[in-house]
Design a protein that fits this description.
The complex is a heterodimer of chains A (272) and B (203).
Chain A lengths: L1 H14 L5 H21 L4 H12 L2 H7 L8 H21 L29 H14 L4 H11 L5 H11 L2 H41 L5 H13 L7 H8 L3 H23 L1
Helix pairs in contact in A: 2-3, 7-12, 9-10, 9-11, 11-12
Chain B lengths: L14 H17 L9 H18 L7 H13 L32 E7 L7 E8 L3 E9 L5 E8 L2 E7 L5 E6 L5 E8 L3 E9 L1
Antiparallel strand pairs in B: 1-2, 2-3, 3-6, 4-5, 4-7, 7-8
Classes of the chains: A mainly alpha (272), B alpha+beta (203).
Chain lengths: 272, 203
């Protein structure tokens, strides 16, 4: 367990002298944790990761010496909060928040809660346009309808939604919603790959058709593939959504239907 | 908060509270126990974000590849020293965000090159190219920015001198057979009994 491992690192540190082989063995492990953490946070750039690692480098010892076991905070939690503080300072200083979403931007309650600022919830530009339109209308619905539809469409929840579910369902929402996000990221990536493959096949058949200049039976296949490409797929199961919302699966179907009706009405009103 | 030690809570009045709440959520995540979260949106958002960072830290450590191992070692040596390029060289350049470059990416682990400074040799820049061959590793060293002082590079295993190469020809090249767990150290040597440890690598 990670908590036990970090506790052991702290205890090892407190019992050893500087510049001894025992202390160096601890540092080697700690440094590799920090280095790996940096690599994961700065997915896009190895060099940024190395810079951050160096930024933390001279401060690692102070994290150990500032830890006070009497506060009954696990050393792992203490270390991760301190490391996050350094990460935010570093990112703030380096990029002035251009590339990374920092917690300070959450406080308006509208900021989406994602798993990671760099996680892949990125739709294509056409999809984004449609989603933005939908997103704007969603916000005009009653809050519970909005939450239900956000979950069904794969929009991340905002802090105020999350707080509401936290009050309703308790702390399990942290685990459930994070699992939902991870699942959604994974599943939507799989769907995107599938759709790309369909598009490749459509392109290939179209080129072949143009080359042969024929009226081949490929027409039907292409049409079928186009339909397949545009067919909406449900990415997240109703089981997962109903667990997060704290309602039964049957109630979810009814609620979804009602929410979609309201959404449709809103959209129609706007178009008129 | 006034009775709390400085350092444990660094100028952030909510840090201890954040740690306590994060600890409750971290534990509750495994046990499904209820946890009380104050009705404060910014704090809630902060716990969410902190949880993400804690999860990142808790992810299993990946196997160290060849490039990363050396990069990590080089990073630890280079610390606050950084050089953008030779044109901008200053005798002892220190930047808050030193850049350390390796030309090898993940999984392309057959060769990598590094440039770095050593704090005991201000002004000198070491260029190291490491290449993995079937039977061992080649280390090719060059030194710039400090002409005349460092004239040789030597390779040791513990206190045993394995090889010494002159830098007069431009670079000093070493080959070492792979022996698991063996540590080799490189020293920069020169006039007036100059002998500075530059890099130690466990093969």
């Amino acid at each position: 367990m990670i908590e036990t491992e970090f506790q052991a690192l702290y205890e090892g540190w407190s019992k050893t002298q500087p510049d001894t082989p025992e202390r160096n063995a601890i540092w080697e492990k700690v440094h590799y944790y920090v280095y790996s953490y940096a690599k994961k946070r700065f997915k896009a750039s190895d060099d940024d990761a190395a810079d951050f690692y160096l930024y933390v480098y001279s401060r690692i010892e102070s994290i150990f010496s500032n830890y006070k076991p009497e506060y009954q905070i696990l050393f792992f939690i203490f270390f991760s909060v301190k490391l996050r503080g350094m990460y935010l300072n570093f990112v703030d200083a380096v990029s002035r928040k251009n590339e990374y979403v920092l917690f300070r931007t959450f406080v308006d309650g509208e900021q989406d809660l994602l798993i990671s600022p760099l996680s892949a919830l990125e739709p294509s530009s056409h999809e984004r346009e449609q989603r933005e339109k939908l997103y704007a209308v969603l916000q005009q619905l009653p809050i519970f309808d909005e939450i239900t539809l956000r979950m069904a469409f794969g929009f991340p929840l905002a802090v105020r939604h999350f707080r509401m579910l936290l009050k309703k369902n308790g702390a399990s929402i942290f685990k459930d919603y994070r699992e939902y996000l991870k699942f959604y990221c994974r599943k939507s990536e799989v769907e995107r790959t599938k759709r790309n493959k369909i598009m490749e096949r459509i392109n290939m058949l179209t080129i072949r058709k143009l080359r042969n200049a024929d009226h081949s039976p490929q027409d039907a296949t292409i049409q079928e593939l186009i339909q397949q490409y545009h067919k909406p797929k449900r990415v997240v199961s109703h089981n997962v959504i109903s667990r997060i919302l704290g309602i039964r699966k049957n109630s979810l179907s009814i609620r979804l239907k009602k929410a979609i009706d309201s959404l449709r009405k809103k959209l129609q009103t706007q178009e008129v | 908060m006034s009775d709390l030690d400085k350092g444990m809570i660094n100028n952030q009045p909510n840090e201890l509270e954040l740690m306590r709440l994060l600890q409750s959520v971290w534990t509750a995540k495994k046990t499904d126990k209820a946890v009380e979260i104050p009705d404060d949106e910014s704090l809630l958002a902060e716990i969410w974000d902190s949880l993400d960072h804690a999860e990142t830290l808790a992810e299993p450590l990946p196997d160290k590849n060849f490039t990363e191992s050396i990069k990590l070692i080089v990073s630890q040596i280079a610390k606050g020293f950084a050089f953008e390029n030779l044109g901008n060289l200053v005798p002892l350049a220190i930047t808050p965000f030193p850049a350390l470059r390796s030309d090898a990416k993940d999984n392309l682990i057959t060769s990598a090159s590094f440039r770095f400074a050593q704090k005991n040799l201000p002004g000198a820049i070491f260029y190291l190219a490491v290449k993995a061959e079937t039977e061992g590793l080649t280390f090719s060293w060059q030194v710039a920015g400090n002409p005349g002082r460092v004239t040789r590079i030597s390779m040791y295993s513990g206190s045993r001198l394995l090889e010494m190469q002159s830098l007069v020809g431009g670079s000093a090249d070493f080959f070492d057979y792979k022996e698991s767990g063996r540590k080799v150290s490189f020293f920069a040597e020169g006039q007036k009994n100059l002998k500075i440890p530059v890099l130690t690598i466990e093969l």
